[in-house]
Specification:
This protein has two domains: 123 residues, Immunoglobulin-like (Sandwich); 98 residues, no CATH class. The chain is 7% helix and 45% strand. It contains two helices and 17 strands. The termini are far apart. The N terminus is likely disordered.
């Protein structure tokens, strides 16, 4: 059981005064679930998945414990190939070898997780991704910059692939992959389905590879990546964002984001939260000179 102390401020308009009552609530621990973080790409090198145990309460700050006794396999349904992921150093991984990849654009993949006698499955498809044509940048003084921060403001130039709605996850980094700046999510060359098909990415998508509170400086490297998303993976991420940004008087009630892993065991009782997704990636980098 967790004890949460709530301070409730009650305004008394007539007396232009206020009083504070402290109420002790006993909040029972919630149920814990396995949580899967599994995403494959078409990039060469090892692919890794993580399976952890959720914590019983949002007030519990202990690290999530790692689950090491599951069996995880990935099947390329298009090419009829199967990859066994082995557990090591806190993650399940598969290494196809140098310059080799298991992710192919247009292929459908099925992930199978066997855990505590039950079997779970999820599928996703690697969708097409446009190439990043170039990265440009412009120096702005603090007087010229809308943020009031002096430095170099980078832009990413890319064009949506025409012919259908495409969904993208755009991420930028500073200097290396350990320091990311911004995440953006786009549909076609903008933000909505049914429009911007085949467009050059609109200005906000181009400009927001720069952290306006900390623009790039001379000698730093700008790294931009576009990941393709399936329709279902895009809307999974939107659900996650809605939960993370929930707040205010009219906020949505917090809830577990619906996973795509299905328990296919007859009379199976267990549930695995999280998501299995698949993406193609394009990237470009440029050093500020």
């Amino acid at each position: 059981m967790k004890n949460i102390r709530l301070g409730i401020l009650i305004g008394i308009v007539a007396g232009f005064s206020a009083c504070e009552d402290t109420i002790d609530l006993k909040v029972p621990d919630g149920k814990v679930y396995p949580v899967l973080d599994a995403w494959i790409t078409n990039q060469a090198g090892p692919q890794q998945f993580r399976l952890t145990q959720s914590v019983p309460s949002y007030t519990d700050n202990t690290p999530a414990s790692v689950i090491s006794d599951a069996q995880i396999t990935l099947q390329d349904m298009t090419a009829n190939k199967t990859y066994d992921f082995a557990f090591s150093n806190g993650a399940y991984s598969y290494d196809p070898g140098d310059d080799q990849t298991i992710g192919v654009i247009g292929h459908v993949y099925k992930l199978t997780v066997q855990y505590k006698g039950e079997t779970f499955e999820a599928t996703d498809t690697i969708k097409r991704v446009p190439q990043i044509d170039s990265i440009s940048y412009e120096f702005k003084t603090k007087e010229d910059a809308r943020s009031g921060k002096e430095g170099y403001y980078a832009r990413m130039h890319a064009t949506d692939i025409a012919g259908a709605d495409d969904y993208y996850w755009i991420r930028s980094y500073r200097n290396d992959m350990a320091h990311y700046n911004m995440d953006q999510y786009a549909i076609n060359g903008a933000f909505n389905e049914g429009v911007a098909d085949g467009w050059v990415f609109i200005d906000p998508l181009q400009e927001n590879i720069t952290d306006y509170d900390k623009p790039y400086q001379k000698g730093e490297k700008v790294i931009a990546r576009i990941y393709s998303l399936s329709h279902t993976s895009y809307y999974f991420i939107q659900q996650v964002i809605d939960q993370l940004e929930a707040g205010g008087l009219f906020a949505k009630v917090l809830e577990n984001v619906r996973p795509n892993l299905v328990n296919v065991t007859p009379n199976g009782k267990q549930k695995i939260l999280g998501w299995f997704g698949a993406s193609a990636a394009s990237f470009k980098e440029r050093t500020i000179e």
